[in-house]
Specification:
47% helix, binds nicotinamide-adenine-dinucleotide, two-stranded antiparallel ribbon, 13 helices, alpha/beta, Rossmann fold, 2 domains, Dehydroquinate synthase-like, alpha domain
Length: 364
């Protein structure tokens, strides 16, 4: 198992390690038995992941001598709400989970966000461990301690910053991941190359055909490189007040497209269009070379992600959604743009006309 340290000393949160490898459940059991993060462990998963991996994972931890139980809630974003939190908390209470226990989030970003949220507030907090099973979870949501649930009014509106005590990334879980969920993760991976690491971007250009075939497992070095980028940003800006915003590349217009499509586009599909838009505006306003723009569009398309906006999603609707973006600062919407691949900037001075023309340009 390769290990990455997330070092948050002196910043109010404890540091932790990310373990990465293939088929590492035995190792996870051994490490937890050694570290004794909890006297008892409650694995919380969802109704898709639990039948596929829950029992086997539970057994591995039992075999390592841990006192551990498993519970699940219905899979999907619609579960990411206060009712699920109340239901799980009641079940935890009934089964005697107290502050000496630790939670284990076994699932994608939804499970990770909910379990992290519960861990931050249940009995005024208890430790939790992230075991992400989606590509999005493995390269993004399990690292960094953002926890959240959705309100009727919008996504992630109720949440906390609460770091996990450990993250274990087992690439074997990806073997059962449906294609569309896999592609969601690829969109985030491409984003890391674009905002931080031209070398990773080049590697993806070379390896994308093999990655898409999913032969021989997902390349560990790619996941590890993404985790290192995320951990560096989190170490510098744990509370998301500056440099961590770079992770929003493609997300401003992407979120608006996702909502305007009424979620017919997945998150990864919508941010792919958002990244294409941000690259085009970067070309117009910030000197992103045409060659870089073309490379970004080609890689998105090579990954099997969309590069064209369908006519049925109206530009006016996308603009209206942009105006209600929750990350807006007064009337200014901050976008992440690029000078070149690997060199991002944040800028709020984009006129509606430029945004409108760019969105229209996504139809070609
Ligand atoms: N906290 C953060 O920093 C952060 C970052 C990015 C995204 N998020 C959040 O993460 C969520 C999206 O996460 P996601 O894309 O992982 O979605 P998800 O958790 O809904 O998982 C997608 C689907 O795949 C299933 N699944 C998971 N692992 C599987 C496996 N190994 N095999 C088969 N099926 C599997 C799940 O049950 C679900 O149906 C959103 O709620 C988003 O807001 C949080």
């Amino acid at each position: 198992m390769n290990v990455i340290n997330v070092s948050l000393e002196g910043k109010g949160s404890a540091s932790y390690q990310i373990g990465i490898g293939y088929d590492i459940a035995d190792g996870i059991g051994r490490i937890l038995a050694e570290k004794q993060l909890g006297a008892r462990y409650a694995i919380i998963s969802d109704s898709s992941v639990s039948p596929l991996h829950g029992e086997a994972f539970l057994k591995k931890l039992h075999d390592a001598g841990l006192n551990v139980s498993l519970m699940e809630f219905p899979a999907g974003e619609h579960s990411k709400n206060i009712n699920t939190v109340l239901d799980i908390a009641a079940r935890m209470l009934a089964s005697g989970v107290d502050r000496k226990c630790a939670l284990i989030a076994l699932g994608g970003g939804v499970v990770g966000d909910i379990v992290g949220f519960i861990a931050s507030v249940y009995m005024r907090s208890l430790p939790y461990i992230q075991v992400p099973t989606t590509l999005v979870g493995q390269v993004d949501s399990s690292i960094g301690g953002k926890t959240a649930i959705d309100l009727r009014e919008g996504k992630n509106l109720l949440g906390t910053f609460y770091q996990p005590s450990a993250v274990f990334i087992d690439l074997k879980f990806l073997e059962t991941l449906p294609e569309r969920e896999f592609n969601n993760g690829l969109a985030e991976i491409i984003k890391y190359g674009i905002i931080d690491d031209e070398g990773l971007f080049g590697l993806l250009e070379k390896e994308m055909p093999a990655v898409k075939k999913r032969k021989g497992g997902f390349p560990e070095h790619i996941v590890e490189r993404c985790c290192r980028i995320k951990k560096n940003l989190v170490e510098i800006d744990e509370r998301d007040q500056g440099i961590r915003h770079f992770l929003n590349f493609g997300h401003t217009i992407g979120h608006a497209i996702e909502a305007a499509s009424e979620y017919a586009f997945t998150h990864g599909e919508a941010i792919s269009l958002g990244m294409k838009a941000a690259a085009r505006i970067s070309g117009r306003l910030h000197g992103l070379p045409l060659q870089d723009r073309e490379r970004i569009e080609n890689l998105i398309s090579q990954a099997g992600l969309p590069t064209r906006l369908p006519e049925r999603i109206a530009t006016d609707d996308i603009i209206a959604r942009l105006k209600t973006d929750k990350k807006k600062d007064g009337d200014t919407i901050h976008f992440v743009f690029l000078h070149k691949i690997g060199s991002p900037l944040i800028n709020g001075g984009v006129t509606e006309a430029v945004v409108r023309e760019t969105i229209e340009g996504l139809r070609k």
